[in-house]
User: Which sequence fits this backbone?
């Protein structure tokens, strides 16, 4: 990777804006693909009616959608691996953080509101289950996938790229030169 290049700043601004737009798209995708169910609001907790694994299904769907978004960001960043700078890598990874948070919050806002779970919650009619990430560490998956994919592609590029020219050969000395063995 090269040092930070000031000419690449517009590309980094576009990358950050792209991550934010991709965050909204990923949130809509999570909302569209996540399993839904019904719950009964009990004092202090929600009792799932349709699918006891509803929370895990919602979390896995979020993980898949944001992992794909992380791969997309990495692919966009390394479209020309030889021209990738340290600033590009940092911008991609750091822009993935608000993108992931935006995806999470977009899906939550589009999903049904959560029922009350306080001490006054009744055990009445079932209501739609809220859409949420229950394992909050999954929000860090998008930046982690982006960083891992960038590392793998840049490492492979560095290992598989041959130098442009052959290394210079050592100068040869005539056979009677007293410095020949030094």
Assistant:
């Amino acid at each position: 990777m090269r040092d930070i290049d000031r000419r690449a700043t517009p590309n980094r601004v576009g990358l950050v804006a792209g991550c934010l737009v991709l965050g909204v798209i990923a949130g809509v995708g999570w909302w569209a693909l996540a399993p839904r169910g019904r719950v009964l609001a009990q004092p202090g907790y929600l009792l799932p009616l349709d699918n006891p694994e509803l929370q895990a299904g919602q979390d896995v769907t979020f993980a898949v959608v944001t992992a794909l978004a992380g791969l997309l960001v990495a692919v966009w960043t390394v479209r020309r691996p030889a021209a990738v700078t340290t600033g590009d890598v940092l911008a991609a990874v750091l822009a993935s953080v608000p993108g992931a948070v935006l995806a999470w919050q977009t899906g939550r806002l589009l999903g049904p509101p959560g029922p009350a779970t306080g001490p006054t919650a009744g055990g009445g009619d079932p209501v739609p289950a809220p859409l949420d990430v229950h394992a909050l560490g999954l929000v860090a998956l998008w930046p982690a996938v982006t960083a891992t994919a960038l590392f793998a592609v840049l490492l492979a590029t560095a290992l598989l790229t041959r130098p442009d020219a052959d290394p210079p050969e050592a100068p040869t000395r005539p056979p009677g030169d007293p410095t020949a063995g030094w």
User: Anything to note?
Assistant: Strands lie at 38-42, 45-48, 127-128.
